[in-house]
Amino acid sequence: MALAFKSREDHRKQIELEEARKAGLAPAEVDEDGSVINPHIPRYMSSAPWYLNATTPSLKHQRKRKPDPNFNIKSSWYDRGAKTFRADKYRKGACENCGAITHDKRSCVERPRGLGAKWTSENISPDEKIETFDQLDYDGKRDRWNGYDAESYRRVVQRYEAREEARIKYLKDQQLKKLEEKIDNTNDDDDDDSLKVNESKQVDFAKVEKRVRSGGGGGSTGSVRNLWIREDTAKYLLNLDADSAYYDPKTRSMREDPLPDTNPNEKFYGGDNQNRVCGEALDFKQLNVHAWEAFEKGYDVHLQAAPSQAELLYKSFKISKEKLNKSKIKDTVMEKYGNAATDKILDRV
Hints:
Function: Involved in pre-mRNA splicing.
GO molecular function, one term: pre-mRNA 3'-splice site binding
Region (Disordered): 251-272
Largest sheet: 2 strands, antiparallel
Domain Pre-mRNA-splicing factor SLU7: 136-342
Radius of gyration: 46 Å
Strand content: under 5%
Order of helices and strands: HHHHHHEEHH
Number of helices: 8
Family: Belongs to the SLU7 family.
Structural class: mainly alpha
């Protein structure tokens, strides 16, 4: 029920009545349909908005309204592009450009004529069909897709599908032309055998199509060689002992050596840690250690933030260290054997 102005005494009595209803000392409020209204419902929910002009207590404003089954929203919409009457001569108050009486010159969508229909009274355009809908509900008036015909989009889809098929067919024809030209050129050359790839060398390498990362985002499809050889034994099958090296199936890594007692000359795999202490992995580890030590000594260097700077600093450090070692070796040799290039007389031992 809409809130009306109440005096202080009436407001106090209303609060006492609500407290009594909540405590069960007074009968609960009943709506116009005879249904009991729960007294514990907050007032901001039980009070109807002012624009509904509710005179009796009710909770109808909280219930979902049922749509009218006799109202068909598809048949009740504007007849797009429909025309009605076409006049034979110009009428007073009609459009000065086309002659239709349903709009003025400012709202006319036809091409501006050199001499409008007001002066020529020729080619009078038909009047548009004007419709108004007062029976639409709140949502129907604001439905932006109301009256939309989904079948009209079928022509757009068919046009784009035909364009895509033509594009794919054109690309296939171009690829076939290039392939034919390449075959003709290879047949004319005498060194054709040197250009062919020996099929026996790629028996173990399967050509697969997969998604590769590209700079434009989204990836692109390209040919990638699968370097897995069928004759290679999997890491976890080298030693089936449960107490052997641990195999991590998620990262496919086995850090320890699964066969530590085997002859090193006959072993094909010695654990993933073997690759971390040799080759460029060892150099990268030394570069990391040097960057940490240089940062602790006050140098503004960070391997991840500025890798080129860290590498140049490490190279200059190695050069200076090598020069220092050579000078130390030279000093120790001269201290032990003396310098024959000086004029100083050497002591006889």
